[in-house]
Amino acid sequence: MSTTTTATAKVSLTEQLSCAEHELGMRRRVYTRWVTERRMAQEKADHEINSMAAIVETVRRAKLIDEAAHEMFPGLHGGDR
């Protein structure tokens, strides 16, 4: 798999948010099981889940700001469109 700055720039905020929300859900399901199975410490699971939740919130806010900017400045280039 090849990753470049150009490829990364083509992922919309909507797609990023969807991916981050999916990852958060997976972490909540999997890490809960891993803690029960003693494969992961509760503190580590909490930190990883909270970190991804913060990412979700950051992307959500960025998306809202981007949408507001497009409403205020319809000719604005870039963003999620």
* Continuous helix count: 3
Task: State the shape.
Answer: elongated
Number of domains: 1
**Total beta strand runs:** 0
Biggest β-sheet strands, sense, barrel: none
Plain-language structure description:
By secondary structure, this protein is mostly helical. It has one domain. The chain is built from 3 helices and no strands. The radius of gyration is 17 Å and the shape is elongated. The two termini are 26 Å apart.
Short description:
This protein has 3 helices and no strands.
Key terms:
81 residues; mainly alpha; 74% helix; 0% strand; elongated
Annotate the secondary structure layout:
Elements: H1 5-9, H2 13-36, H3 42-72
